[in-house]
Predict the structure.
Amino acid sequence: RGFKGRVIGPIGAQLKIRAGAERFAKLAESAIGGAMDKFICTNDYDRTLLVRIRAEVGCNPRQCNIFQVHVHARYSVKQESFDEGIEKMSSVLAIEDDLVYNCLVDNSKIDVRALAVSKQVSESGLLSTDGNGRECIKGDIQFVHFLPQGDHWKVNRGSRTVTSNERGLNRQTIGVDKTAAIKETEREHAVLKQEVEDMKKREMEMLKEIKEVKVKWNVEQRKLSQREDKRKKDQAKLDDLKNEPDTSVNVNAIDTTEFEEDVTECEESLKLLKDNEVSILRKIEELEPDVSDIEKKREEVMARNNRVLGDLDKAGVRMENVINKQQQREKEFEKKKKRCENIEEAVTENGKELDGIREKESDALSKAKLMTQRIMAKNDANEEIDIADIQPIETDRSPEYYKTRISQMLKKLENEKEKRRLAEDPQETHDKLQKAMEDLELIMKTVKTIEQNRDLLVSDLRVRKKKWKHFRKHIASSTNLLFDQMLNKRGSSGELEFDHENRTLNLTVQKDNTDEMSQTKDVKALSGGERSFTTLALLLALGENLETPFRVMDEFDVFLDAMNRKIAIDNMIRAAKQMEHRQFIFITPQDLSGLNRDPMLKIIRMKTPERDDFSQGTLPFSSQST
């Protein structure tokens, strides 16, 4: 299929037993374990292609998994000599391919496993003690497998543990020549395939024959029905003739030979048709199992199609709901947009009115200053008074008081005009006064309206600010709870303190949630892995309450150990799956082959840089000076 690199598999087909070590064949196969059925590739492209082929043939990933390794020279494994009955696993196996050998060293640890004929022999030949008197294993051996059941023992920190192999050593494929069995299986497969083809042809012929027989059966049935009707009519005529009395002795007897021959012919035809019916029914019974199998397959296909149609209908309903919700959001958005436009227009109109009021106020103030200047100049003729130095006098009296005073002054003015008999038309003066009063009234109403609007806006602002503080407190509390839950998954606990006034964030981390003495507020006191995990927990907790469309995290697990890295990745993937409407991008130089496959999870691997002889090269810069 166009692999770009070497692809080897299954691994068991590449293994042989060294001559003289055949007794360890089953034991070596048990020690290798599930790696026997796995395949080896050297790049991401070949791995993806192998996964696609595995899905096409219906192979279980657990049975035919894939190792992706780097191509390099064969490992140099130290060959050690042991007592009689003990062999190193790497020396028992005869592996010609370097890629297979390196893969088994990396994944099955064949360089640190020993095989023995019995437990007693293995303990006497490999078990020893160190300088502190604790038990240990000689050489580089870490695991010791022994016959007859395939059990093994190991020593960890001076403590020896024995693990039994409950499956036993019932299977052996290494060193067994199965070429003849494979050829026999292939021959049987070809025979069975030919038989299936013959049966299919026979089935088609039988179906065709059944169809032809049914046609003949229908034709004969029609003929039989016609002959039966004719026989009944002839029999009725014969009965009528037999029942008629002899009217004359000389009348010749009626000749019924022709009718009797017809009856005999009809009976023979009826018998032949019944025999044909029996044979056809027998053939139909023989073909009924095949027809029932075909009918069952058709019903299964129909049921599968119905399920697919049901899923499509459900998806259509969900799509309609999403579209309806989107339309509702758009309508609400248009309403709010229109409302905002109305509010902006009202604010613009109020601003214009306010500017007009300010202009009138400025004119009135100028006139008042001018009048005050004249009065002060009249009272003190020797002193020059600048109109800019005249300022309004603050007072506690209400506008109604001055309105009353103005009315009184106007009345006095009218009285003075009457006394002095001024030439101006009183009606015209009254109209002017009335218009001034109406303008003042309108101005006062506008001022009250503006003050009411201002009070409403201030009240609304306070309510909004209160709700905003409550919402901010809720986010802080939720983030703190999620942060503590994330740390609890690795046996720690923590607390976040949001200082909104000083705009600071304080972290308190307790390494052991059962020991309060391990609590610290200084993040620098944490190790690199603890600090990285705490940072991830903080980011995930904050991300649960933020409405960001996508998030990118780069090299988040560089300082994490294996356990904390697994917990962190599982938490991030679970959080990403729960928020399907957002996109998460995680960048890491670590291996992700242990992750479970999921339709929502996509892994993109960068190609390994090409280097010659595994040494760092130099770029071909020109040596000319600039």
Notes: The first helix runs from residue 25 to 32. Residues 246-252, 622-626 have pLDDT under 50 and may be disordered.
